[in-house]
Amino acid sequence: IKMLTEFQLRVLSAVAEAGSVGILSAPFLSAVGSASRTSVKKALARLAELDILFQRDGDYRFVNPFFRRWIRFKE
User: Fold this and answer.
1) CA 22: distance to chain centroid?
2) For the chain: N or C, fewer Cβ within 10 A?
3) Mean pLDDT value across the chain
């Protein structure tokens, strides 16, 4: 997690909370503190590049579901 920016961590936490539903929606953007879908897309791409998330049918999911639970618990 140390290799992630603060914004990427916020996106990761928001994905853990939201699941794969509503990513890039207005409430999701508000949760991560950004009005820019482009910034969120870049963060999601980086998280996928690091094999933390993967994309399937336009949704982002955790490679390891236990890591998602840990992120949610940690918050």
Assistant:
1) 11
2) C
3) 88
